[in-house]
Amino acid sequence: MAGLGAAFRRLGALSGAGALGLASYGAHGAQFPDAYGKELFDKTNKHHFLHSLALLGVPLCRKPLWAGLLLASGTTLFCTTFYYQALSGDPSVQTLAPVGGSLLLLGWLALAL
């Protein structure tokens, strides 16, 4: 399982790099449809960073496969949904966010158990 944990650690590092790139884009290049879009983008980016850090801790837990899959898929669903809405102004995919948030919650619980 050490190799599996290392894979999630690398994924967390790559996700963190992606979050940093998106933060730079949001601060310097993005065109938001309104002030809410900018606020939503910034909040989403904070969640992206936080859950990237959580992925770095996956190798230290007893069930790295469960914790890693739940955190990675939850981060993808949750953050992608809100990044899209922030940049486009289109809330049509917003229904995926609660699924992503639930997966993130389960991922944190998997880290704790």
Structural overview:
- With 113 residues, the chain is mostly helical.
- α2 runs antiparallel to α3.
- The chain has one domain.
- The longest helix has 27 residues.
- The chain is globular and about 45 Å long.
- This is Transmembrane protein 256.
- It comes from Tursiops truncatus (Atlantic bottle-nosed dolphin).
- It is found in: Membrane.
- Its main location: membrane.
Summarize the topology:
Layout: H1 2-28, H2 35-56, H3 64-88, H4 97-112
Helix pairs in contact: 1-2, 1-3, 2-3, 3-4
What percent of residues are in strands?
A: under 5%
Element pattern in H and E: HHHH
- CA distance, first residue to last residue: 16 Å
Number of domains: 1
Rg, please? 14 Å
Low-confidence stretches: none
Total number of helices: 4
Average pLDDT score: 95
Query: In total, how many beta strands?
Result: 0
Q: Share of helix among residues?
A: over 70%
Structural category: mainly alpha
The largest pleated sheet is described as: none
| 3D shape | globular
